[in-house]
Amino acid sequence: MRCPFCGHEETQVKDSRPTEDNAAIRRRRFCPGCGARFTTFERVQLREITIVKKSGRRVPFDRDKLARSIMIAMRKRPVEPERVERMISGIVRRLESMGESEIPSDLVGEMVMEGLASIDSVAYVRYASVYRNFREAKDFETFVGRLAGADND
């Protein structure tokens, strides 16, 4: 593994242990070149997944990009990071177990919306505002009104 600080080609693993959800291996590493310490995570990838965008463009699935978009929606919300990580891992497992190599981006977006709705309603609305491309305050009002209506059922 290359050192992210100095680019040294060889780093040493000092400690390995499973993550809390046992979905990855956490490795503490040391660089003999610059003395830096850093952590890497190793995950099993069952298959290569390609995301088909609305424009028809195809891009490789990127778990980190998925996590970043969810973390933006969750910013400053009182939700444990482990709960968010479990949600992300669950989405990835569902995508991998579908048996499809190409998955529409809409499906991934709906899975994220479903997960956020069960964790935090503010994060859900934040994500929806980008995913559904809200353009004005009226769009928020309509969406939140439907959300409130569903809660009363």
Automatic annotation (TrEMBL):
Cofactor note: Binds 1 zinc ion.
GO annotation terms (biological process): negative regulation of DNA-templated transcription
Keywords, ordered alphabetically: ATP-binding, DNA-binding, Metal-binding, Nucleotide-binding, Repressor, Transcription, Transcription regulation, Zinc, Zinc-finger
The ATP-cone domain, residue ranges: 49-139
Gene Ontology molecular function terms on file: ATP binding; DNA binding; zinc ion binding
Cofactor: Zn(2+)
InterPro entries, per the entry: ATP-cone_dom, NrdR-like_N, RNR_NrdR-like
Keyword Electron transport set for record: no
Zinc fingers, unnamed class: 3-34
Family: Belongs to the NrdR family.
Function: Negatively regulates transcription of bacterial ribonucleotide reductase nrd genes and operons by binding to NrdR-boxes.
Protein name, UniProt field: Transcriptional repressor NrdR
Source species: Zavarzinia compransoris
The organism's taxonomic lineage, starting at the top: Bacteria, Pseudomonadati, Pseudomonadota, Alphaproteobacteria, Rhodospirillales
